[in-house]
Design brief:
The structure is a single chain. The protein starts with 9 loop residues before the first strand and ends with a helix. The chain has helices at residues 13-19, 24-33, 51-60, 77-82, and strands spanning 10-11, 40-43, 46-50. The chain is built from four helices and three strands. The chain is globular. With 83 residues, it is an alpha+beta fold. A hairpin with a 2-residue loop joins β2 (40-43) and β3. A three-stranded antiparallel sheet has the order 1-3-2.
């Protein structure tokens, strides 16, 4: 019997932050300002972010002409060229 991976409909706070490559504090601040999708009530005190709303938010981000800084976890272009 094979199992088929299931894409989650909702993500908890930590997973939502990882999904969009932001910190938990950043998404909490952005939610408070109305700049990020608000979590949905799932039951009791449990909340989650709807993945399709996170996807839509990501797709709506403007394209940047800035290269990622060297300290972002990867090697910068200048370092790659020099290596």
């Amino acid at each position: 019997m094979s199992t088929t991976p299931i894409k989650p409909a909702y993500l908890d706070r930590d997973a939502a932050a990882r999904y969009v490559s932001l910190s938990v504090i950043t998404i909490e601040r952005m939610v408070a300002r109305g700049d990020f999708p608000a979590p949905r009530q799932l039951g009791g005190r449990r909340v989650g972010w709807l993945v399709r709303e996170l996807d839509a938010w990501c797709e709506a981000r403007p394209v940047s002409s800035n290269l990622p800084p060297v300290n972002c976890g990867g090697r910068g272009v200048a370092q790659r060229v020099a290596a």
